[in-house]
Amino acid sequence: MVMYDRMSSPLSGALLFSWILWNWKLLFYLFFSSHDILNKIDYIQRYYFDLNYNIIFPLLSTAFYILLYPFISNSAFYIQLKFKLFQNKLKNDLEKNQLLTIEQSVLLRAEIANITKEFSSMLEAKDIEIEKLKIEDNRITSPNYYEEYIAFLKSEYYEYFQEIIEMITSKQLKYKISDNVWAYYDANGIIQGKNRFTEKGKFFIRQEMNENE
Fold first, then answer.
1. How far apart are CA 161 and CA 140, in angstroms?
2. What is the DSSP letter of 34?
3. Is the dihedral of CA 27, 32, 38, 44 positive or negative?
4. Helix or strand holding residue 81 (H, E)
5. CA 204 to CA 37: how far, in whole Å?
6. Nearest to residue 145, comparing CAs of 75, 73, 202, 88?
């Protein structure tokens, strides 16, 4: 199930597509060449093993798609909106600043409102997509922490998490928490003593913040 989630994620899909784009000749030779398998392996090792094409270029393409494409897409939409408004202004100037009729004004305002609404919806969708990619990146870079975090959510000690966060960050022991709870958090590597969070604990806090947004 975990493997399926990773392979179906936007990050994995983008990386797979980028790798195929940069290495399509290798795949074409592998599947459509009439040579036997040993000759194929030898030929691929000699001519198609390249650090740039096999690793660096696909990673750079994936980073461009994930980090820059949403901003480029939003910018293009924003420019299109500004150009449409400029066209309407230019049309008024060419008509010697003739005032619109009431019906035309209503239609224009409705069109502008509709475009603005579509633009806002698109920005919101892109923000959600970026947040999902951030969460997915956390899952890939810290897979063990994520699985432990899921188990932690189901434990009886999770209900004390917010209070412990508040006490450690404010350095004030203002809640009454039993020694058993402190011992659980310490033994599971979430905190160290009663005054700071471990790297795992910081990861748990980031996940908590992402899910509460």
1. 24
2. -
3. negative
4. helix 69-94
5. 48
6. 202
Residue recorded with tokens 């400029």: 86
Confidence of residue 184 (pLDDT cuts 50, 70, 90): very high
For residue 131, the surrounding DSSP H or E stretch is: helix 102-141
pTM passes above 0.70: no
Q: What does the pLDDT look like over 18-70, one tens digit per residue?
A: 877 777 877 777 787 777 777 777 777 776 677 777 778 888 878 877 777 67
Mention every residue, 6+ apart, whose C-beta is less than 8 A from residue 84. Answer: 115
Q: How buried is residue 190: exposed, middle or buried, by Cβ count under 10 Å (0-12/13-18/19+)?
A: buried
Q: Which two tokens stand for residue 116?
A: 């603005």
